[in-house]
Write a structure and sequence with these properties.
Order of helices and strands of chain A: HHHHHHEHEEHEEHEE
CATH architecture of the largest domain in chain B: 3-Layer(aba) Sandwich
Number of helices of chain B: 7
Strand order of the largest sheet of chain A: 2-4-5-7-6
Order of helices and strands of chain B: EHEHEHEHEHHEEEEEHEEEEE
Number of domains of chain B: 2
Strand order of the largest sheet of chain B: 7-6-10-9-8-12-11
Strand content of chain A: 5-15%
Oligomer: heterodimer
Largest sheet of chain B: 7 strands, antiparallel
Shape of chain A: rod-shaped
Largest sheet of chain A: 5 strands, mixed
Number of strands of chain A: 7
Structural class of chain B: alpha/beta
Number of strands of chain B: 15
Largest interface: A-B, 28 and 25 residues
Amino acid sequence: MSVETLPRFRAENVRSMLRHGLITVVFCCFIAAALAITQHGDWGSQMVYSLSIGLISWLFIDVGRLLISGHREILWPSGPWGYLLVAAGVTVGFLGGNAIGDAWTHQPLLNFRSFAERRLATTIIITVTATVCMCFFFYSLGRSKHMRGQIELAQRNATEARLKLLETQLEPHMLFNTLANLRALIATDPPRAIAMLDRLNNYLRMTLNGSRALAHPLSAEFERLADYLELMSVRMGERLRYTLDLPEDLRDTPVPPLLLQPLVENSIRHGLEPKVEGGNIIVRARQEAGRLVIEVSDTGVGLDASQSPSEGGGFGLAQVRERLATVYGDQGRMSLAPEPAGGTRTTISFPLPPRA
Amino acid sequence: MNPTALIAEDEPLLAQALKAELAAAWPELQVLATTGDGRAAVREALRLLPQVLFFDIRMPGLDGLGAAAELADSWPTDEAPMPQLVFVTAYDEYAARAFETRAIDYVLKPVQPERLRKTVLRLQQALTAQQPSKPAPNGADEVLEQTLAQWRQVLAAASGGAQAPGTAPLRLIAASEAGGSTVRMVPIDEVLYFEAADKYIRVLTAAHEYLIRTPLKQLLTQLDSEVFWQVHRAVVVRSSAIEAVHRDEAGKLHLDLRGRPEKIPVSRLYGHLFRAM
C-alpha cells in the first residue's frame, strides 16, 4: 500500500467526524430523555450534562484519532493507543461535561461529594458505557468502509492485471507483423501460409481463453510454445533456431496454462530480437528429486545488455513468479542467470504432483 | 537513369514482399540492396547512394530511426542529394506520432498496393523536382536544409520529443561515479554536457565525470529544452556553456565548451542551431 502521508484533516475525514458528532448529539438526547424520565430530574439540565459530556468526549476522541493516525490509511490508532485515547476521552468528557453542567445549574464546580454515591456511579457508568459503545460503533463503521474500499481496489487491480496480460500477449507489433508475413506467404507459398494461419489460430485461441483453465498437460504447454516459436521463426527466418525438449514421462504432468509463454517471449524480445545474427532458444523439462524443472535458455544479448526491463520484460517475469506462488506457494521457484557463453537462462521448478 | 532504392527490413519475407509490391507499383525502380539490420543499412546506403530508402523502424542492432540519424550525418551531400526516406512499420506508437506531421512518408505493414502507389507517386514527384536544370549552389543548400529539417522533425518526434507536459525538469541527477559504487547527487546546474556511450550516458561537469543508465531518449524528456540542446545523436549540451563553434575542412562543426577541454561534434541535423545570425 502507499506510504505517502495524507493531510490529517482532509475533507473526507472532517466529513466523517461531523457525521459522528451529529450521531453523538442524537444519542446524548436519548440518554438525557431516559435520565429525565427515570430519575425525574430536570429535563433541561439533563440535556446540558449529557450533551456536554458527549460532545467533549466526541471532540477529544475524534480530533485525537485524526491527529494520531489521520495521515494513514486506517484512521484508528493501532494497539494500546486506541484504548488509551478512549479512556482519556471518557475522563476529559466526564470532568469537562460535569463542569459545564455544574456551571449551568449554578452548583459548586465538580463537587461530587454532594452527590449521592449511587448517582455518581450511575453517571460514570452511563458515560463510560455510552462512550465505549459509540466508539465501537464508529470504529466498526469505519472498518467496514475501509474493507469495502480494499475489496474494490483488489478487484480493480485484478482486472487491470488481466488486461495488461492480454495486452502483452496480443502485442500489436507482433500481431501486425505476423499478419504482414501471412499476407506475403499467401502470394508466394500458399501451403506454408495455411500452416502459419493454423499456428496463429492456435495461438490466439490459447491466449484469448486459455487462462480460464486451471491446468493442462505439459505436452499441451509445449505445443503452444511450438506454435508461438514457429510463428516467430517464419518472421525471423534464420535468425531464430529453437529446440523443445520434453521427456516422454513428463508429458502428462499438469501445469498452469501459458506459464512458460512469457519466458520464451522475453528470450525473443529481449534476447534475440536485438541481436543482429539472432540465436538459439532451448526449452527443456526434466525431473529432479521429485520436482519438475523447466529451463528456458537463449543465446541472446544477455541480461546486462537488454536494458530497461520496464518495457514488458519486468511484467512478464513478475507474472510468472506470481502464478508460481499462487499455485505452488513457496515450493514454486524461479531464477534468472546469465549463460556463460552469453545469453540468459531462466529456470523454474515446482513439486511434481503425486502419480495417480 | 532509373531511380534507385535500398530496403532495410529484418524480416526476410516482408523484405521480399515489399520488393514485389514495389516492382508492381514502380517497375523502373531498381532496388540496389536489401539489408536486415540498421548498421548494414547505413553501410550499404553510403556505399550505393540510392535515391530512396525504405527503412523498417524496429530492427536489430541499430533501429530505423537511429540509422536515419546516422545517415543524415555522414551522407556525402556533394556526391548525391539526400535520399528520400520512407519508414515502413507494423505498429509503433512513437512513429505514428512522428508521422502525423507528414514530414516524412511512412507505409504500414502489411503493405497495401493502393497505399504504396500513393507513396510512389509522391516519391516520383520529389525526385523529378530534384532533377531539372541543376539548381544554383545556394538553391541546393536550401533543398538540403529543407530535407534536414524534415528529418530532424521526424527523428525528434520519434525519440520522445519535447519535455512531457506537467513534468518538472530534473534538478538533481542520481549518478554513479565512473568506476565506483558510490551514487552521487549531481545538481543539474553543474552539468555541462551528456554523452550517450554504449549502455549508459556519461554526465560531465567541469571537474568530474559520472554515469547514468537512463536511455538518452528518456533523459531528454526530463530536461529543459531551452537549457540543454541536443547537438548530436549522442550528445546534449548546456547551451549557455557553448563558447565557440568551429567548422573544419570537411565542413563538420565542432563546439568548444567553457570548462571542458573536449571538442564536441555537432551533427548535420542540428547544424541549423549554429548558423551565424
